[in-house]
Amino acid sequence: MESTQHHIDRKTFLKVAVLSGTGVVFGVNFLQSCQSKKEQPINLEALEYNEFNAYIEIALNGYVTIYAPNPEIGQGVKTAMPMIVAEELDVAWDHVRVVQANLDTKKFKRQVAGGSQSIRFSWMPLREAGATARQMLVNAAAMEWNIAPEKCTTHQGFVVHPKGDKKGYGDLVLKAATLEVPQKITLKKTEDFTIVGSGKHNVDNFKITQGDALYGMDYSQEGMVYAAILHPEKFGDILVSVDASEAKKVHGVLDVIQFNNNIAVIGTNTWNVFQGKKAVKATYRENKNKEDSDLFDNRMEQAFESGKFKKRGGKGNVSEVFAKADQVIERVYEAPFLAHNTMEPMNFFAHVTADKVNLKGPIQTPENTAKQVARALKRKEEEVHIEMCRIGGGFGRRLIGNYVIEAAQISNLIQKPVKLVYSREDDMTAGYYRPKVKYKIKAAIKNNQITGYHLQEVVVNNMMWPKLANYFPEGAIPNTLFESYRIKSNIKTAPWRAPVTNFLAFAEQSFFDELANELQIDPVQMRLDLLEEAEKNKHDDMEYSPRRFQAVIKKVAKDAQWGKTKEGVYQGISAYYSHNSHVAQIAEVEIKNNQPVVTKIYCAIDCGIVVNKLGAMNQAEGGIVDGLGHALYSEQLVKDGIAVRSNFHQYKLGRMKDAPEIQISFIDSKEAPTGLGEPTLPPLAASIANAVFAANGNRLRKQPFAKNGLYNS
Amino acid sequence: MEIQLTVNNKTHTVDVPGETPLLWVLRDELKLVGTKFGCGVGQCGACSVHMDGIITRSCLLPVSIIDKAKITTIEGLSEKNNHPVQLAWREIDVPQCGYCQAGQIMTASAFLAQNQNPSQEEIKEAMHGNICRCATYKRIERAVQTAVEISKKTTK
Description:
The complex is a heterodimer of chains A (713) and B (156).
Chain A: E1 3-7, E2 15-19, E3 23-28, E4 54-59, E5 64-68, H1 77-89, E6 96-100, H2 118-145, E7 153-155, E8 158-160, E9 166-168, H3 169-176, E10 184-188, H4 205-209, E11 225-230, E12 238-243, E13 253-259, E14 262-267, H5 270-278, E15 281-285, H6 293-306, E16 310-315, H7 318-323, E17 327-335, E18 347-352, E19 357-361, H8 366-377, E20 384-388, H9 402-414, E21 418-421, H10 424-429, E22 437-446, E23 449-460, E24 479-487, H11 501-519, H12 523-536, H13 546-559, E25 569-578, E26 581-592, E27 595-606, H14 613-633, E28 638-639, E29 642-643, E30 661-666, H15 684-696
Parallel strand pairs in A: 5-6, 11-21, 19-20, 23-24, 27-30
Antiparallel strand pairs in A: 1-10, 2-3, 3-4, 4-5, 7-8, 8-9, 11-14, 12-15, 13-14, 16-24, 17-22, 18-19, 18-21, 22-23, 25-26, 26-27, 28-29
Helix pairs in contact in A: 1-2, 2-3, 8-9, 11-15, 12-13
Chain B: E1 2-7, E2 10-15, H1 22-29, E3 48-51, E4 54-57, E5 70-72, H2 84-92, H3 101-114, H4 120-127, H5 137-155
Parallel strand pairs in B: 1-5
Antiparallel strand pairs in B: 1-2, 3-4, 3-5
Helix pairs in contact in B: 2-5, 4-5
């Protein structure tokens, strides 16, 4: 095997312990490489187990167990992360078993699923972990053979003697555990990868296809009761009194309790508590400040007229170039609130006792949530235990652990093990939405060049982060200004798959299409030219790579035969630097029954090395279809303080027949991998809008497209 | 009321109000949790089961009207997790979060029992009622086609 020498920082690795009679465990820190290099080296001898965030276990029979620390919400890390370890450890994939770890702040660090960051942050630490363990096994074999370690190779779970003898990892592991952790390790060359870059099936497929109890919703235990919850129907209302007399007569209802601003119905099964909930009569003190989608529209327009904006980033002198411009182009793009609608509604099990708070269920942020539960119950953090399970979708909703706290509070009040289950209506109407937002973008044109770019955001609650000013078009346009205006609201908002960029990308990439049309430049060529300019002005703070960006645009244009489509097929391009991956998409639209219909999406992605080809393709396709469905159909409306859409008969999501043909290319790369859970979603909507414009001249600036009269599939 | 039910060829007796939907009897009383709760209003398909082989939304089906009909859930679809649809789902690697997939598999298997040689349009039509928020629709479509091929091979 060809290889590259690699010095590791001691702190990036590892502590080895012998398990009684079963094998050896390596404690690993997956996340050290993303931390500051300026930190003082840590003395390995002084390390405690809490320095580690994952474990590799090698059994005496040679089988390897990898404890995956991060929550699995469908993004595929439970498969992809262990693949990286197995690659460098050099074991056969079918000898690897993956186990979901529980929340354990003593063992693990940063157990979070979010931002498409798991693979990006853990790539090198995972490789180092596998390679270091492998080196220790090689050293053990070399000692037994009494030869130099460099003479040994490894192959699929065996150390191989130059003359062909072999020793299995299982036979070597006890000896390896007694050796010093090597400081110099050998990482495989990327061209020698056999597991990374292949396609491995989701490790839970067998259990999923036979209906095993994998999810929080599926959990129950002896003596457990069920709880349903009533949040105030109107955002901002205060609960005054509860009449539970009728509810308590409902079959199977055990109790009705009031806590904080909520009511819980306790009973013997989920259906009974849902029925009990309908019979509860509650009175609320109304929030006078009525939340209403239409009123927000007015306030947003007023903000654009006369609001005081907060500067988020930019450079140069925007006001000067706008004053001197030959032409100013200005457009506004609008997005509604969106619910997350994970298929598994919010739920959590809680059992609060005198010595412990035991919790189990779906959560993307177990550590932070455990802290919040401790605070809410006035308990010590170490008394709170969270058992993790497979999660029926996250999309950002389960970054917010309010339902976990609620479950714990209910158990605390009734002193019983309880499973809190949200109905779909609770889930859809009680908030944590993608914020409603509008972007006004202006460009200054001088001598047919774009000299200034001014983006204003008016948003409910959650403003864009300043770093977005260093995305495209940074470097491509000399004068830029990014500003935000925040409207505070009682409507609960939260990150939603590809936070901010899920709509910012639409606004920006639609706007550049409009600019290309105004300036009569080909939209693909315009982007390539702007990126050429960005390449000349490249600097350290720039978040994206102009060259990699150009490459995905060229690739997708080639795949889609941009500009050479057959009659009746219209194309639109969109490209975005998406959560550290570069993505370009071309949508094809055809007119059927006088309506534009999306028939095909081409997509080119540079996410560095593709770790799991099967998983990557699944994520990329899913992001495209999810982006299409939401752009076409989805919105939550608020009227008189009440969320209007309460279930899927009113809230339309993309379905089977909406999914167009999809063709995806991954750029062949040796760069370190970046994530894929979010990246294909942000650019998608603009590719559709731009293709619809090419097809019938209608410019879509407001989502959802179907409702706004311009698009029906 | 006491109700007798035949689920996956086993007879169970449960004591619940007759209007209780089958979904909650399966999940909370019989602990057959493979059938999923998604919406409770028959819109998402996560709760799909077979009633005498016909695809049925268990969240809307009161247990009292099932009578002698035989219920099949994902747990009883095959002996060894080897129904052609289950095999195809794994071969194509359909699941992302996986939560809706039991409902998808039950819908596909009931459909293929009625139509052994469906067109692409018929597959899309049959699966249109099942929501997948991860949007694995392209793979579901391919997996149904693959299940057709697997079935043809095994019946030859």
